[in-house]
Amino acid sequence: MTLPTADTKSNTMERKASEKRLTKVEAEKLLAQYGQEHLLRFFEELTSQEQDQLLNQIADTDFSVLKQLHKDALQKKGRISPIRAMELPEIQEIKEELTALGLEAIRQNKVGAVLLAGGMGTRLGSDDPKGMCDIGITRPVYIFQRLIRNLLDVVDLSGAWIHLFVMTSDKNHKATVNFFQEKNYFNYPEEYIHFFQQEMAPASDYDGKVYLEAKHKIATSPNGNGGWFSSMKRAGLVKLLHQEGIEWLNVFAVDNVLQRIADPCFIGAVLRQNCKVGAKVVRKNDPDEKVGVMCLEDGHPSIVEYYELTRQLRDTRDEKGDPAYNFGVILNYLFHEPSLEQIWDRELPLHVVEKKIPYVNEEGEQIRPKEPNGYKFESLILDMIHMMDTCLPFEVERNREFAPIKNKTGVDSIESARRLLQENGIPL
Ligand code: UTP
């Protein structure tokens, strides 16, 4: 097998060297189109290097996302109907067959893994990348370390290394790459780990005025997890997929420390059902649990968010008498790469999310708000599901595969994840 050379490895992908691409007058004109002239408020006070930096950032920023603020908050859904999931008893019966199929694909190097780690993890409240969070009790156990360990389980079982692609953002790229280097990639071969950066979107106040994070810097936030494949393309990594013959990508979130990555049984199930995407799902805890559930929308796979689930949908039953919309997604998907090639440049809906955004005020003072003070704009991976022709919702046992860390305390926190890890016999 040919391994990627240092050149094709995108962990070295740094921001383009700055050469000035806009004059001040051009920037003023561009900003005026979007009502954002205030971003040049401190321009005359800046050093010439800072001025260039700001002008370049203005050139790179997609201000058109602000149009989203004037649209209806909820996108209109199409006709919703139930989708059949592969449930635990059925999986149990054919587990060996599915696992063998999945292992064969892994050994043929057809499977890669994509870790989405570009989010800000604001709910956890640390400035470090979420994956650097230490969840150990008697020894350090970092989230990244746990995820790599989970992937190593499959490497051990299959005897094949799996390429891991790690998405970061401008806010956490350096810290993430440095951390992996410092920890010697948690004993994963460095040449199988590829970092790439997602794009950023401007963050605005409630009136749609973009904040300045510093006098020479627009406040931006990562543009959501929906752009992961186009960011991989931009980073030149899709070439590597083709070179290596990778046909399936298991995309997963940084915060679920219990999830199985490149799970042979899941891969085998998606292959056997001949679907373009698979989604790991868990049975809902209760009908009102705040989780997006799988469905068909106008005949295509889709996800109804909990706030879109009407009472009527919630109470619909299937032929067995079970709730018809009962399987929540856990952000662990297996995508067919050639199918992604067909949809990657289609526009995804943008979601407007309220956030705490640090900024400089009119007096030039740095403010770190304690409460949300504006919006960020995100595209979401779940909207990609609707662009695929077929999807297999694949049920997993909640207590064995779902321990997300979102909050500091309480539900989906380090404490709750620790409990679940210990329940699964993982020493902390
Ligand atoms: P979340 O929806 O939990 O968002 O991300 P977040 O930004 O990490 O956390 P909060 O809401 O600020 O507390 C789900 C997954 O998608 C990734 C995250 O890193 C996580 O793995 N993600 C999210 C990105 O990779 N990029 C983004 O822009 C947003």
In short:
With 428 residues, the protein is an alpha/beta fold. It has a single domain (74-423), classed as Spore Coat Polysaccharide Biosynthesis Protein SpsA, Chain A (Alpha-Beta Complex), CATH 3.90.550.
Instruction: Please report which band the strand proportion falls in: under 5%, 5-15%, 15-25%, 25-35%, 35-45% or over 45%.
Output: 15-25%
Overall SS class: alpha/beta
- CATH homology superfamily name: Spore Coat Polysaccharide Biosynthesis Protein SpsA, Chain A
Give the CATH architecture. Alpha-Beta Complex
What is the C-alpha radius of gyration, as a whole number of Å? 22 Å
Per the principal axes of the C-alpha atoms, what is the gross shape? globular
Mean pLDDT: 92
The first-level CATH class name: Alpha Beta
Low-confidence parts lasting 5 or more residues at pLDDT below 50? Answer: 1-18
